[in-house]
């Protein structure tokens, strides 16, 4: 498109008017849909529209508004959100207390000067030191999960002077070039290789970790950090076997490697505790946070570490900086999120609602064994495993036609995740279960063709 400032001026005004409108006419709604599809194709990425994640094949489900555990498309059709923004909406869509904190902060100051002391960052860092286990007393705030993982990697390199990382098969840590090294799927990594020095070992296999650490020690390519998701999210909701995290802690200590827990998806109450590692009582050296940390309203992540991994960074704080990370509005959102999680005891709610779902979905798996194999996970970080690669997709499509949003996992195509906002009501869960039963019945008729 040729440069055309006049059209840009007129179009930006038009869109600002649209944003400000409380109600749209049918004509305006149709125009937004047509514009969105056209601009997405011409200026975002035509490939994405074809991607099967878009269960709305007629393109009419342009999302427009949300609250609690639901969102509505531009025509007002309401969907129950069983995907939860891939783990973003723990406190629900636009929780009023997050919105209040954000708008009040916005009315005072949006972005900090970068030069003086911005107070909300300090309050948030203190709060994070109170909700994380053990001696994780320091925080660096980022803008996303992948940046949090990058930060953990740099801190581990500084603390150990080493450059070799060990990750797990099935891991997903993000897609910036550092974190992408830890992400395990060849399809995401191959076009960008060589990445940093990463080895991948089977998840949950403590012997493999011991072998890798000891071989690296022998060869001199010593390990800076073992980076692991206590529950693999994109790998298909795989929970670390009992004792695995504790054994990894011991081995990391033995070989002088840092232990990094990526709780970007499993953190902030989703699994029934504030962090999944709280179940095992294991304290890492570094923890990566993101997704739900900003209350589903602001993007913010965190690199959280102990004194040992922070020491070199304190000597030279310019080794890792960011313009927007930890800005006052994002910090206000994260502070409100922590307050809500504790006031509403959302971790406990997640655990109870998760147990309820596991029980009901397990019964459905017995009823439709040709389609649904099992459900696994903890709290509201659950995965339904299907009998074939295409069966899960067919069920997602059926569910979408019954006004339920759900999606697969990035690395394991047999698994649909169940990660609704933790505030979801039992009535909404039952609506999901009813739609799931109908969808499984519909797909069961097609199942032989899908395998
Ligand atoms: C465990 C984990 N780590 C890191 C990331 C990357 O986060 P982001 O997409 O915010 O960069 C994700 C995203 O799905 C994740 O699930």
How many DSSP-defined strands? Answer: 17
- Give the structural class: alpha/beta
Shape: globular
**Spatial arrangement of strands, main beta sheet:** 4-12-11-10-7-5-6
Radius of gyration: 23 Å
| Strand composition percent | 15-25%
Q: Supply the CATH class of the largest domain.
A: Alpha Beta
In short:
Helices cover 47% and strands 16% of the residues.
Describe the structure.
This protein is α/β, with parallel strands linked by helices. It has two domains: 21-94 and 346-450, Aspartate Aminotransferase, domain 1 (Alpha-Beta Complex); 96-343, Aspartate Aminotransferase, domain 2. Helix content is 47%, strand content 16%. The protein is built from 16 helices and 17 strands. It has helices at 5-20, 26-50, 84-87, 96-108, 119-131, 145-160, 177-182, 186-189, 206-219, 244-255, 277-280, 307-315, 328-343, 346-367, 389-401, 426-450; strands spanning 63-67, 70-73, 78-81, 138-142, 164-168, 198-201, 223-228, 231-232, 238-239, 258-262, 286-289, 301-305, 372-378, 381-386, 404-405, 407-408, 415-418. The strands form four sheets. Strands 4-12-11-10-7-5-6 form a seven-stranded mixed β-sheet, sandwiched between helices. The longest helix has 25 residues, at 26-50. Bound molecules: pyridoxal-5'-phosphate.
Which helices and strands, and how do they pair?
Blueprint: H1 5-20, H2 26-50, E1 63-67, E2 70-73, E3 78-81, H3 84-87, H4 96-108, H5 119-131, E4 138-142, H6 145-160, E5 164-168, H7 177-182, H8 186-189, E6 198-201, H9 206-219, E7 223-228, E8 231-232, E9 238-239, H10 244-255, E10 258-262, H11 277-280, E11 286-289, E12 301-305, H12 307-315, H13 328-343, H14 346-367, E13 372-378, E14 381-386, H15 389-401, E15 404-405, E16 407-408, E17 415-418, H16 426-450
Parallel strand pairs: 3-15, 5-6, 5-7, 7-10, 10-11
Antiparallel strand pairs: 1-2, 2-3, 4-12, 8-9, 11-12, 13-14, 14-17, 16-17
């Amino acid at each position: 498109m040729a440069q055309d400032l006049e059209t840009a001026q007129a179009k930006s005004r038009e869109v600002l008017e649209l944003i400000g409108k409380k109600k749209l006419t049918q004509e305006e709604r149709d125009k937004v849909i047509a514009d969105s599809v056209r601009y997405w194709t011409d200026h975002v990425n035509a490939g994405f529209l074809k991607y099967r994640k878009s269960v709305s094949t007629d393109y009419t489900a342009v999302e427009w508004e949300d609250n609690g555990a639901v969102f509505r498309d531009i025509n007002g059709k309401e969907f129950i959100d069983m995907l939860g923004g891939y783990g973003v909406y723990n406190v629900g869509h636009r929780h009023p207390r997050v919105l209040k904190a954000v708008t009040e902060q916005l009315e005072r100051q949006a972005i900090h000067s970068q030069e003086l002391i911005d107070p909300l960052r300090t309050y948030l860092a203190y709060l994070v030191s109170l909700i994380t286990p053990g001696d994780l007393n320091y925080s660096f705030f980022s803008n996303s999960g992948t940046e949090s993982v990058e930060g953990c990697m740099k801190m581990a390199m500084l603390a150990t002077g080493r450059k070799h990382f060990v990750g797990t098969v099935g891991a997903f840590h993000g897609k910036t070039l550092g974190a992408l090294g830890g992400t395990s799927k060849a399809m995401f990594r191959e076009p960008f290789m060589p990445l940093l020095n990463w080895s991948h070992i089977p998840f949950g296999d403590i012997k493999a970790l011991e072998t890798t650490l000891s071989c690296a020690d022998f060869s001199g390519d010593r390990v800076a950090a073992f980076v692991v998701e206590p529950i693999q999210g994109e790998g298909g909701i795989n929970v670390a076997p009992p004792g695995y995290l504790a054994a990894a802690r011991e081995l990391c200590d033995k070989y002088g490697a840092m232990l990094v827990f990526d709780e970007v998806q499993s953190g902030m109450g989703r699994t029934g505790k504030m962090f999944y590692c709280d179940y095992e009582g294991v304290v890492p050296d570094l923890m990566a946070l993101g997704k739900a940390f900003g209350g589903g309203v602001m993007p913010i992540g965190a690199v959280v570490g102990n004194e040992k991994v922070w020491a070199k960074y304190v000597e030279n704080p310019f080794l890792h900086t960011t313009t927007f990370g930890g800005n006052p509005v994002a910090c206000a959102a994260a502070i409100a999120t922590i307050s809500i999680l504790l006031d509403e005891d959302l971790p406990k709610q997640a655990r109870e609602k998760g147990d309820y779902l596991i029980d009901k979905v397990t019964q459905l798996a017995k009823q439709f064994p040709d389609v649904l194999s099992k459900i696994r996970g903890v709290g509201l970080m659950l995965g339904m495993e299907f009998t074939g690669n295409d069966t899960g997709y067919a069920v997602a499509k059926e569910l979408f036609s019954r006004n339920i949003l759900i999606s697969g996992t990035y690395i394991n195509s047999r698994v649909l995740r169940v990660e609704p906002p933790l505030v979801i009501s039992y009535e909404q869960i039952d609506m999901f279960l009813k739609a799931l039963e109908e969808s499984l019945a519909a797909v069961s008729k097609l199942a032989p063709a899908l395998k």
